[in-house]
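Quick one from the shared queue. A colleague (R.T.) flagged Chaperonin GroES as missing a structural entry in our internal table.

Convert sequence to structure tokens.
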Amino acid sequence: MPDALPLKMLHDRLLVILDKDSSERRSTSGIVIPATAVMGKRLAWADVAAAGPSVRQVSRGDRVLFDPEDKSEVDVGGTDYILLRERDIHAVAQPEKDDAGTGLYL
């Protein structure tokens, strides 16, 4: 994620980078499911690159869940971003804890 973007976000707008892993998926048995496979409405994960001053629940660097059908794409400095409103975000992922395991090898 770039350190500084050459723009200032306004109001409740978010600029996110689509997670590369959300294009292809793997089933529980290990079969690769391509992004072109239609399986109903599927939400996507993205990382927040910038947030406007009125955004209250999300901050830069958060991983968010949103509907990719309701998106506006923009290219800034050769990187593709998606422009969203804060109300379009369905969830914010909790940060992963590195020490969450028990340390036991079974």
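The chain has a mean pLDDT of 78.
Strands lie at 13-18, 25-26, 32-33, 44-51, 63-66, 72-76, 79-85, 89-92.
Added to the table.
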